[in-house]
Structure prediction request, 83 residues.
Amino acid sequence: MHPQLTEKKIGSHPPPVCLEFIQALDACHANGWYRWTGACNQAKQDLNMCLRKERIDRTAKNREEAKLRRQKAEQAWKELHAE
Prediction:
């Protein structure tokens, strides 16, 4: 499953992620026949891969930030116990 695919939901502060893939899938879904015959499967797969890459990048960044926060907290505890 993917998040709600509208520009408003994905975010406008940083540029929306995977916007070109979202627009391609929306354009494909505009033709109802394509939607039901599987003609949009490649557009959906491309979107899923883009969203997956974005999620992996975001979680890696969050993990690194969490490590830094944890190191700062551990250092503060060491300083507190040293006094």
Q: What stands out?
A: The first helix runs from residue 7 to 10. The radius of gyration is 20 Å. The mean pLDDT is 86.
